[in-house]
Amino acid sequence: MPTIASSLAEHTSACPPGAPRFVVQKHWASRLHYDFRLELGGVMKSWAVPKGPSYDLRERRLAVSVEDHPLSYNDFEGKIAEGHYGAGRVIVWDKGCWQPLHDPYQGLGAGRLAFALHGHKLVGAWALIRMQPRHGRPAGWLLVKERDGHERPAGEFNLVDALPDSVAQLPDCPAPAPLLSRRAPAGFAPP
């Protein structure tokens, strides 16, 4: 059985033509959150991540499944008017392509979707893991970083604080990112 690291080694090149896209939109609605979206089945499967992604292996970020969005929404950056669902400012915080490390439909059904991201800020192996339902509420998900050489302790590097700005004007397909050193110099940030 392949490991995350060996599966990831197959998926670290630049985005191939037709590769499914991902986008993370930073959204100042009633509360700041990050809309994490993966292209699958002709739509953007979507999760709201209140604290945003983290490169720290110990941080499991709540990811609330929300309605699918059309592919055309990937480029949206602007303001959703008051009185409309999700009113507030939205920026394209990260974008790129993603590759499932296993069958994505089986992963979603089983509650563990493992994938590689190739973005400007998010790179390497990640997973969405479904939690057990509680008190009659639907099951939530967790967005977690997998061990692959890109991980960084939060005390060393806080991704959402260090890289708060839009990538909307950058290419849809970033150049391949080098593995991050665990002993990177102070102030070094992933691409």
From TrEMBL:
The lineage of its organism: Bacteria, Pseudomonadati, Pseudomonadota, Betaproteobacteria, Burkholderiales. PANTHER family: DNA LIGASE D 3'-PHOSPHOESTERASE DOMAIN-CONTAINING PROTEIN (PTHR39465:SF1), DNA LIGASE D, 3'-PHOSPHOESTERASE DOMAIN (PTHR39465). This is Bifunctional non-homologous end joining protein LigD. InterPro entries: LigD_PE_domain. It holds the Pfam family LigD_N. Residues 25-130 form the DNA ligase D 3'-phosphoesterase domain. It comes from Oryzisolibacter propanilivorax.
